[in-house]
Amino acid sequence: MNPNSSFRLEYSEPNWPEVEHSLQEGNTERMLWFAFICVALFAIISLSTRTWERFQTSPMVISMDRNKLVWNTSFPSLTVCPHKRTDELKVEDYMDNHPKTFQTDQDRDDFRVFIERLARLTYENIETLPRNKTFGIPSSKYLDLLYELKWNFEPEMSSGAAVQMYIYETLTEFGICHSVNSLVARYNSYDYWKRNDWNILDHGDRVTVHPLDGEIYAQIINLSTAYDVYFHGAGDIPNISKQRYTFPETDYTTVELIALEIYTAEEARAFTTKQRKCRYQYEADEILTSPIYSFGLCLAECRMFFALKVCGCVPHFYRNRSLNE
C-alpha cells in the first residue's frame, strides 16, 4: 500500500466527537443571540409604546404666568334664582279651567302643594315630590306647566361697564332662574328648547375689565322676592356643588368680587382634546344637550345620565332630545 495514500485516508476521516461539540457550541450561541434580540425588541416596542401613549395623554407642560401685556379680565357672571316660583292667580285659573280634574277642595289643595314642590324641585328635595298625586299630568309636560303657571320675575340691571350686559332667563338644576352676563344661559332657555334650536347664538362683545377702569359694577334691581345667587364664569353655568348666597326680599346687598382669569395659549388648539385634557367651547361633539361645551354643562349631563340610570327618568330641568326628535 502506498503510504501517502494511507495518510490521506486517515487524515480525511472526521473526528465525530469534536464535530458534535462544535455544533453544540454553535446552537447555544444562536439561542443566546436569539434571546438577546427578543429582549431588545421587547424593550424597544415597550419604550416606543410608552412614549407614544405619553405623547397622546401628556404632551404638554402646564405652567401659569401673568402676561404683562394682557390685563383685561372677563367680568364674572351670576345667576339669580327667586324663591317665589308660581303665580297663585294663574294656579287658581288653571284649576278653574279643569273642573273635572279638581272636583273637591282637597284636590285643589293637593295640586297647590304639587305645583309648588315641582317648581322648587332640585336634587336636594327631589324625594318630596308627590308620586301618586300628579293629576294625570305626564312628566313630559311638567316644564310646559311650570312656564304656564310661573310667577313673572323680571329683574332689571344697570352696569358701569363699557359694553352692555344682559340678563337672560334660563333653566338650571335649581329651576327657572336669571343669569347676568352669561354666554351659556340662552342655550338653556325654554324658548330655545321649544324651537328645537341647535344653532350657535351671537352674544356680542365679551365684557372685560381693565385695572385702569377702576371699579366696575353691575346692579340688579326690581328683585321683588327673596332669592339665591350663584357666582360663576361667563362661559359656564351655576353648579350645585358650589356655594350659594341667600338674600331676603327687602335687603340691599353689595358684593365685591376679585376676578382672576386663566386662559389657554393659542398654540394648544393644535393638540387633541385627549392631549390637552380640556375643550374649547366649540368642541361639543360629545355633549348631547347643548351645541356648546362647558365644564358645568358636562357635569350636569353626567348627573342627568346618572339619574336616568338610577331611577329610569330624566328630571324636567334637563333638555330632553327625545321629545323633539
UniProtKB/TrEMBL annotation:
Membrane-traversing stretches: 31-49
Source organism, top-level taxon: Eukaryota
Cellular compartments annotated: Membrane
Keywords attached to this entry: Ion channel, Ion transport, Membrane, Sodium, Sodium channel, Sodium transport, Transmembrane, Transmembrane helix, Transport
Protein's UniProt keywords contain Transport: yes
GO terms for cellular component: plasma membrane
UniProt GO MF annotations: ligand-gated sodium channel activity
Entry keyword Secreted: no
Protein topology in the membrane: Multi-pass membrane protein
Matching InterPro entries: ENaC
Family: Belongs to the amiloride-sensitive sodium channel (TC 1.A.6) family.
Protein name in UniProt: (Mediterranean fruit fly) hypothetical protein
Origin species: Ceratitis capitata
